[in-house]
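Posting for a labmate who doesn't have an account.
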Amino acid sequence: MTLEEILAGESKNLEFKVRRPKDSIKYMKSVVAFANGEGGRIIFGVDDKTHQVEGIPEEEVFSEIDAITEAISDSCEPAIIPDVYLQTLEGKTIIIADISEGRQRPYFIKSFGKEAGVYVRVAGTSRPADEYMIKELMLEGSSRSFDQIISTGWNVTDDEINALCAEMKKQALKHAPHQEEVREVGPQQLLSWGILAEKDGKYYPTNAFYILTGTGPIHTVMQCGVFKGSTKAVFVDRREYSGPLWLQVDNAVQYVLRNIHLGAKFVGIYRQDIYEIPPDSIRELIVNAAVHRSYLDHNNTQIAVYDDRLEITSPGKLPMGQTIERMKKGYSRIRNEAIANAFAYMHLIEHWGSGIPRIIREVQEAGLKAPEFIGGEVDLRINIYRKQNDNNASDAIRTGTETGNTSQETDQEKINTSQETNQENQNTSIETGTEAVNTSKKDLNTSKKRGADNKNIDDKPEFSETEQRLLTLIKENPKMTMDEMASHSGLSRAGVQYALNVLRSKGVITREGSRKKGVWVIHG
């Protein structure tokens, strides 16, 4: 222990006592809380208000060490064995009680009982654990995963199992870089992952089955919102997404992309669209929130877009053994093993532990501040700060009357947005999920006029690299679907959809026929 650490004051892992309290309960709460968390230290002989080193009288040092050790050993269940030792600072003796992170959780004060005697650290103080937190600690102490526990009282049919397997394979084919590598998935695979459990020759659903499918006894949603300013005082738009977990993730990602700024840069002669926050980083953070959150906690995953930042809040404390610093270095600690295995199969998770360091690098390479990680004791909040400019995040959403735009429609919502590009200040309304695009009459006439002018001059319309790539694919196979384009181009489906809408607004392509059996037609 250094003088600098003492002068910095108390923290979530450090507490001061000027003297050992006669009532040991006054510091036993912190002992239990440290054991239920990341561990910590109690320093006797330091004033908690002034941070002055008062010291313990020399003649009392050894009797105090014995009293502290005995009180901790006798008062806690399971037994906590502290490392109690003395140290000299500024010529004065202090006593340090070092409490290690416990493995036999939950630890509690014997005289209070398990229901009332479990304490955890929150914002540098020791607080009673609520019912959810006690259950979380019990699972950690027994090395079990909540998502792999059988959903008591629920049964699952063969049709429901087969439907989940089919949908998971569909998602895997959609996201896999090489479709030929996607293997079949069946009940035995779900059993090995913990999505199903087997008893007396019969399959039973675990919590993971219902979390993944969005059905049954576990109801989870992702709450998304856009707020004016930097607080939640004034909201501009709010949405909730339910259903299968992978669909919640996709909808939340698209929501964020619709409500942040889109710019462009030129690479050679090609125009490349660029979001102010890297889309891959957004997706990975939302996937992490879905996979690693606590589903014992009844709060919802929250994604908020403010004028100055994107904020993602994942319910639940960090898993045992995980810290924010370890996470930044790539240390992975999986809370929901069954869900993690399912997302890995669907290629929604890449390499274990590599995500957070990669996100930090991508965000900084985009010219933004390194992401901010806050909390970890009750929930984990991650902020990505946006570049400050004259346009507020809340300006991304306007009514059709105010901007002359038509609404942007997804499968679950209709929302008006405007997106700004470096090439021109033209607001285009995109209807996603139906492959249709509408523009105002003024914008449409401008687009047609520009297309006509391009035919009368030698210069070809300027296309981004993405647009060129999709035009090549359409020439090779006019019947190609957006999912197939995403697979062949390496883009996300949302990226393909956006580029196609831009091409249609330029009058370069149209879609003829039905949604499933139609063809793309290139003009000019």
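Reply:
Got it, the structure tokens are right above this. The chain has four domains: 3-143, 147-213, 222-335+349-385, 428-522.
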